Amino acid sequence: MCTSLTYENSRGDHFLARTMDFAFELGGQPIFMPRNQKIQGDAGEFTTKYGFVGAGRDLSHYMFVDGVNEYGLGAAALYFSAYAKYAKKAPADKLGLAPHDVTAWVLGNAKSVADLREQVKHIQILDIPVALLGLTTPLHFIFSDPTGDTAVLEATSEDLHLIDDPVGVMANSPQLSWHLQNLSTYGTLTAEERPLHDYMGFDLTTQGPGTGALGLPGDYTSPSRFVRTVFNRHFSNPTPDVPSTLNLLQHLLDGVTIPKGVKLKADGHSDYTQYRGYMSLEERAYYMEPYDNLELQGVKITDEMLTDWDTPVEYPLDHKPHVHQLN
C-alpha cells in the first residue's frame, strides 16, 4: 500500500512525494532513462521521447513506479486492489500497455498533465501480469507538473481519462471520488485548540493543544492515511526553498510511514514502507529514502544527461544507517 501527496512551497516550487509500502521486496533504485528509448514492454514495444529519472528496476526491461521527467512532470503508481479493471486487448487505434509499464510511458512521452489528458485517450491498459509478482498489478496513478496541475488516472473501465485531484493527495482503494467524499466526515477538524464547555457546573480542565484534531484517524488503512495526509498537508507551515520543503515532506510522510511488523497481511507477511520518493519538479530531481537509511539520496537531470547520454544509468542506494557523531 502507498500514500502520495503534492506540495507547493512559498517560492512556487512544486513537489510530488510518496511512500512505497509493500511486503514483497521490490529492490528498486534510482535510474536515469535517456531520451529516445525503445522499451520492450510486456504488452509490446513502445518508444519514449523525453529523459526521466525515477525508482525502477531492470527485469525483462526497465520498469518504473515513480519519477520526474525533463519537463518536470512527476508520476507515481499506487496499488488499487479490487477496483482496477483492465482490457484484454487494445483496439487497433490505441497503444496497449501493461499496468506496470504506464509510468515509464507517461514520463517518456508527456510534457505536462494537460498534455497527458490528451495522450491518455490513445492508450489502453491491458490485463497483463508482471513476472516479478506473478500477477497483474492493480494500479492507479497520480501526476503533477510545475503548474500545480494534479490529476489521477484510475482504470475502472476501458474508458481512460484523467480525474482532477483538488487536494493533491492519493492513497489506495477505494476510488479518489470516495476519498474526497469521506473527507466531509473530518471537515470540522482544525489545528487550533477547541474551547471547552462546562457540564452541569463542573469546570473542565483542558488537555492542552491538539484537541482540534480529536477524531483524526491514526490507523494504516488507506482511508485513514488519506485523511491524515490531507490534514497535515493543509495545516503545515509553508517552506521557502527546496531543502526546507524536502524536509517538510519527510515529516508529512512520517505520518503514514509503516514500520516493519505493524501491518500484517493474511499470509503473515508485513507491508512496510520500503522507501519514500520525492520528486522536485522544477529541479527535475528525484530523491529516494530507503527504509534503513533516512538520508535523502538524489539524482538531478542535467542538460548533459539529456543531450549526450544514450544508455540507462542505475544509481545504487546506500542502505547503511547514517549517524552523525558530535563528539
Automatic annotation (TrEMBL):
MF (Gene Ontology): hydrolase activity
UniProt keyword annotations, A-Z: Hydrolase
Pfam families: CBAH
CDD domains in alphabetical order: Ntn_PVA
Domain of life: Bacteria
Choloylglycine hydrolase/NAAA C-terminal domain residues: 2-309
Family: Belongs to the peptidase C59 family.
Name the record gives this protein: Penicillin acylase
